Amino acid sequence: MPAARRTLHVPRADDGRAGDFFEVSRFMDEGGIDLVCNQVIPGHRNRDYWGLPKLGSSAAHVYGVQDDLALSETFGAYGWHLGLRMMKWLTDWQAVRGINHFILHAFNPRWPDLDCPPYFYDGGLNPQWPYFAEYVRYVNRLSDWLRGEGTSLRCCWCIRGR
Predict the structure, then answer these.
(1) Nearest to 102 by CA among 66, 132, 142
(2) Are 120 and 126 a contacting pair, CB within 8 Å?
(3) Containing H/E element for 44?
(4) pLDDT tens digits for 46-101?
(5) Residues 6+ apart with CB under 8 A from 82
(6) Which of 89, 100, 103, 137 could form a disulfide with 146 if both were Cys (CB 3.0 to 4.6 A apart)?
(7) SS3 80
(8) Per-residue pLDDT tens over the stretch 100-138
(9) Would you call the peptide bond into 42 cis, given omega within 30 degrees of 0 as the criterion?
(10) Cis peptide before 118, with omega less than 30 degrees from 0?
(11) How many CB atoms lie within 10 A of CB 109?
């Protein structure tokens, strides 16, 4: 029997077009998306990406992935304007749509790394580096809670007093 292979990205056709997301997702080990290249910016209309995380979490649910694992490779090519506040907002935005496994793009202790910024460590030169561990602890707690329950957050209500 061949060794298991983890598949995390939806293959693309030779001409660059993506295939049928759900048809291909049934072969994945986790439902998954990429949230990269400033697809979503807090406070802006998010073009066609508002439902992107829900695609990944829905694929995990539909195909019975253990613990409804839904992965997001996130923050790639967001650039240097990405800070910890925006990272938390994007993390929460994805979590309430069912993402429960976060892969932080461009986390590489080697420096310089010529891949798409931001670089969280950046040879120790990123001024937010000392606070990065707190963000990682938050994401780990959030992911553990979401995976421990085996479900995504279905609904979030905010009740405002008059």
Answers:
(1) 142
(2) yes
(3) none
(4) 767 778 899 999 999 998 888 889 999 998 888 888 899 999 999 999 999 999 99
(5) 75, 118
(6) 100
(7) coil
(8) 999 888 666 666 767 777 777 777 788 888 898 999 999
(9) no
(10) yes
(11) 10
